[in-house]
Amino acid sequence: xxxxxxxxxxxxxxxxxxxxxxxxxxxxxxxxxxxxxxxxxxxxxxxxxxxxxxxxxxxxxxxxxxxxxxxxxxxxxxxxxxxxxxxxxxxxxxxxxxxxxxxxxxxxxxxxxxxxxxxxxxxxxxxxxxxxxxxxxxxxxxxxxxxxxxxxxxxxxxxxxxxxxxxxxxxxxxxxxxxxxxxxxxxxxxxxxxxxxxxxxxxxx
Length: 205
Known about the structure:
205 residues; single chain; Tetracycline Repressor, domain 2; 2 domains; mainly alpha; Arc Repressor Mutant, subunit A; 2 strands; 10 helices; two-stranded antiparallel ribbon
């Protein structure tokens, strides 16, 4: 197994056409899992959706679990890119917290890749190559943004506070998304100040 970009692959694509085929396989896997569920999804069904031979799927992915791992890594890359673009014009660190949380919620609602991972039933920890891989990456990026853009004082405690805020923000988003609109608004209104209070001691007043 090798890694090409964000994805663990059996074989690295050497041409643009092959890279596009890998993306098409991942898109087809998302659609198959969302429509049929993880257990019922099949490699042959994924190949049919991607309009390729089933052997072409196995050329890059040995099984469904490796496909979900690749989808999760693609999700992370897409999320990081979307957050970075939206943070470009943000003028306060509290607004940066809001953008990060809102983007997470939006992508889980609208991107089939995020839904496919949830429906796989594997859970993020089982898709990680090391514990906390995805949260740690995002926490590191967010800590650097807060330090560079908003004058956060970098320290071990600051990094821990950022990591905690990321983990709590994700839990808050998941809770809000399974509630009614009114309940979700209440949960988010109560939860956002908790995230702010975690970070406030490390940023200028």
